DNA sequence: GAGTGGTCTAGACCACCTT
DNA sequence: AGGTGGTCTAGACCACTCC
């Protein structure tokens, strides 16, 4: 059945169906994207219905839906049964994304590192800890303390304390034997699920305890990384506090700019390619310093960022 | 036309078509997901063809394709014309994603902060800087130095140096008047495009220069955040080095767990909800300390992460 | 050339939202 | 109740891949 020469018959694209123009939904898609980008529809306004678009483009509903699916994937419209397609953005949103597949990528410890567990004990939450854990002072919690070492280096490069609800007491014995991440073990054994990790990075100075653990002087600069593992319901599953001597660790991350949503991501699935990973490597390289100096005296102030 | 009672007729799901079972593709999808998860197909192996699946499930090709589309979105299979559907993963890949829409979210400076530009001058790259910039020592670069302040606080909370290729010299005059991010200005004015931001965070001690800028003592702990803005071709567009006194700034980020690809992302598009932002707030709260102590003496070492 | 997925049409019932 | 998107069927041509 030769495709009736609709309003789009002059279009062309790739492979095709009935007659000989190539796929039509990309053309429809492009037109709609352009119209949206040109501001033809206000944010919150509704796109014409599928039916209307079918008529306008002389295409079947299925074809129009394919085009609309892409608009949705690009984040331009939201669709809902009964309500139509609403404009939610004029341009495909771009984001810088730091995407992490395994916790190891977040934690950034090479596989040549390991944890020396010093102790697992029951503690009582004090006021400070209460703030961190969103727990009531006096409440009992579990604390694991450990040193993280890397092969071939005498000194540990991190002193870590992990706090867990007392409910996890049962698995204390297993921690030493655990190969995967702690949070994964908690998920597996208790059926909880980490939905979110909140990470906080700051520079602090070593107190006496941490200093002795890491064999550095008290007051030495540390990179302290706190990680809160939060369940879907907001419960804190685990709090890990890592203390890294300044010269033994550096935190790195790479943010890739990409459109949000399925558009590009799905293209990756079109056929297997190297699955781009992101977060970067590991232990600190050699420390670097650079001299800074200023001559000029221009002055101004701007709210601008980097 | 009542749907012929195929092998799936006992299934049920949601809303539906011909007869009365509800949508069928979710059921088909679930079955395939389970089979893949159970290891029925090896990685790299091919899934049965659409035709075969149609027969097996007694569904139309369109319906089977809908199911397969989701498998693809979940990252379980890759499809290609002529070659079939290949298993590329046994489980839906989960990632923790830190997604940042604007640079401000990355930089984490509230809108109540601003930059006091101290100087913009031409410098000559020394050896250390050469490493950072991937430039040859001796090469001329542009350097901007500035203090970042927040309303109501006397002391700046960051001393920043930004390095740019000498080619951007023309816009030196505009920097003071710039409201948006510097990198955005470079993009706009020079037609370059930031494709990637590499960020490195470490604890360092203040050298004399930085200390005097920030009015802190030499040797005080700093959080140093370096950001490399890299173009698609790998060119370094800008390097920003931020020095934050330890007690005046903290870097925070939230990673949300989500399946990679369209699956969940698309669900967000199903209907507008609050578009979950991620990266979190700003200036440092009150400094916190906590006592650490250990009693027990269990010992073990594991490669495991938090 | 046979097989596979990509795209298309035409018509249909249904669930959901708006009116 | 009418409109809208969600899902389904049945049949078709095409481009691409692999043998």
From TrEMBL, chains A, B:
The keyword Transcription applies. The keyword Transmembrane does not apply. Residues 22-90 form the HTH gntR-type domain. Residues 281-306 have a biased composition (Basic and acidic residues). Gene3D superfamilies: Chorismate lyase-like, Winged helix-like DNA-binding domain superfamily/Winged helix DNA-binding domain. GO terms for molecular function: DNA binding; DNA-binding transcription factor activity. Residues 266-306 are annotated as: Disordered. GO terms for biological process: negative regulation of DNA-templated transcription. Keywords: DNA-binding, Transcription, Transcription regulation. It holds the Pfam family GntR. InterPro entries: Bact_HTH_transcr_reg (IPR050679), Chorismate_lyase_/UTRA_dom_sf (IPR028978), Tscrpt_reg_HTH_GntR (IPR000524), UTRA (IPR011663), WH-like_DNA-bd_sf (IPR036388), WH_DNA-bd_sf (IPR036390). This is DNA-binding GntR family transcriptional regulator. It comes from Roseospira visakhapatnamensis.
């Amino acid at each position: 059945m030769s495709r009736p020469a609709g309003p789009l018959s002059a279009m062309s694209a790739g492979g095709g169906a009935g007659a000989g123009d190539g796929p039509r939904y990309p053309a429809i898609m492009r037109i709609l994207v352009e119209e949206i980008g040109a501001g033809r529809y206000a944010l919150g306004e509704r796109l014409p219905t599928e039916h209307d678009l079918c008529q306008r483009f002389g295409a079947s509903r299925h074809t129009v839906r394919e085009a609309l699916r892409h608009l949705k994937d690009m984040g331009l419209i939201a669709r809902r049964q009964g309500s139509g397609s609403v404009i939610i953005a004029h341009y495909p949103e771009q984001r810088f994304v730091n995407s992490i597949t395994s916790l190891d990528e977040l934690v950034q410890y090479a596989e040549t590192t390991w944890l020396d567990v010093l102790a697992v004990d029951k503690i009582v939450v004090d006021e400070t800890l209460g703030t961190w854990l969103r727990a009531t002072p006096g409440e009992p919690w579990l604390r694991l303390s450990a040193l993280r070492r890397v092969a071939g280096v005498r000194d540990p490069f991190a002193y870590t304390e992990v706090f867990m609800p007392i409910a996890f007491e049962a698995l204390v014995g297993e921690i030493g034997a655990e190969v995967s991440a702690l949070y994964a073990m908690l998920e597996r054994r208790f059926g909880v699920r980490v939905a979110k990790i909140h990470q906080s990075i700051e520079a602090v100075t070593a107190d006496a305890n941490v200093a002795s653990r890491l064999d550095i002087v008290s007051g030495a600069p540390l990179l302290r990384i706190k990680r809160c593992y939060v369940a879907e319901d907001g419960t804190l599953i685990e709090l890990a506090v890592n203390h890294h001597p300044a010269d033994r660790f550096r935190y790195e991350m790479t943010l890739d700019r990409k459109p949000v949503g399925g558009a590009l991501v799905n293209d990756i699935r079109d056929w297997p390619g190297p699955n781009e990973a992101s977060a970067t490597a590991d232990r600190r390289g050699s420390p670097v310093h650079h001299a800074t100096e200023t001559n000029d005296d221009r002055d101004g102030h701007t709210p601008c960022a980097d």
